[in-house]
Backbone:
């Protein structure tokens, strides 16, 4: 049954209160020295925050889930606002996981707001849905005119080392991007094993690794080299699809890779190309290579 179907959710709604109810709320602004800082922060298990640090005039914050991953009926809400002039990088040093469920599902709702003259990068590690997992994610991105955003997401086919390929029950990812008042992009990724969507995803690479990037900056609308730089990333192991959004400052990028290392390397190269178009160096993450 379609996981977005009303009947499915109506039956399961009562079970959602049984899991962990975690949250994250952040407001990033400038301090008296003109450096980005967290004016507000609030979080609850299973979310934990590292000590922030500055890289390339950007506040870098690692968001950590110290547990084994998301279990049945866990519900997480995440919200971050970046105020005018501030620059924030949210990254997750470890892969996110959703585990097998019996009746319910795990759910993440997130909202990111970028004001005029502000910058936000969201760079999580790969998401790994394990066999029998059901997972729903909704994301709302609001970028004011003059704001800048880099939003990355990546998906593994499962625990490949354990021989699991597309053995989750279903995934439902929804993302809406607003640039100023314009609804610039709406994305829907609905995956269920045995469906045409999975067949299309695996037509080229049977163990397909997938990534999506949404990028917003007025500098992208005048970049003459961004398109060719991203096209050059395509190879026998990696296929690239990209397009400008209806709003001239928005870009959408899709990556399909044969292996996890190929996906990681392509994401790093795409990130470098996007930062080059922004005229800045990518902030370092201060974590162990390959982790």
Residues:
């Amino acid at each position: 049954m379609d996981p977005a179907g009303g009947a499915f959710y109506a039956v399961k709604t009562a079970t959602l209160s049984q899991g962990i109810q975690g949250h994250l709320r952040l407001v990033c602004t400038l301090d008296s020295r003109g450096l980005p800082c967290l004016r507000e922060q609030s979080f609850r298990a299973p979310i934990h925050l590292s000590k922030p640090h500055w890289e390339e005039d950007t506040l870098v914050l690692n968001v950590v889930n110290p547990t084994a991953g998301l279990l049945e009926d866990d519900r997480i809400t995440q919200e971050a606002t970046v105020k005018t002039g501030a620059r924030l990088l949210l990254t997750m040093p470890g892969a996110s996981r959703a585990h097998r469920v019996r009746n319910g599902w795990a759910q993440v709702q997130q909202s990111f707001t970028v004001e005029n003259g502000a910058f936000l990068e969201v760079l999580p590690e790969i998401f790994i849905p394990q066999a029998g997992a059901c997972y729903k994610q909704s994301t709302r991105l609001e970028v004011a005119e003059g704001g800048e955003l880099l939003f990355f997401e990546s998906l593994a086919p499962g625990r490949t080392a354990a021989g699991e390929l597309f053995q989750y029950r279903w995934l439902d990812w929804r993302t809406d991007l607003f640039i100023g008042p314009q609804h610039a992009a709406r994305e829907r990724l609905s995956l269920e094993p045995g469906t045409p969507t999975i067949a299309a995803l695996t037509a080229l690479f049977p163990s397909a690794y997938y990534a999506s990037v949404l990028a917003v900056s007025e500098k992208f609308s005048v970049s003459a080299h961004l398109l060719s730089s991203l096209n050059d990333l395509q190879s026998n192991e990696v296929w690239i699809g990209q397009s400008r959004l209806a709003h001239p400052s928005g870009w959408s990028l899709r990556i399909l890779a044969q292996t996890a290392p190929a996906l990681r390397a392509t994401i790093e190269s795409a990130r470098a190309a996007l930062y080059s178009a922004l005229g800045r160096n990518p902030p370092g993450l201060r974590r162990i290579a390959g982790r």
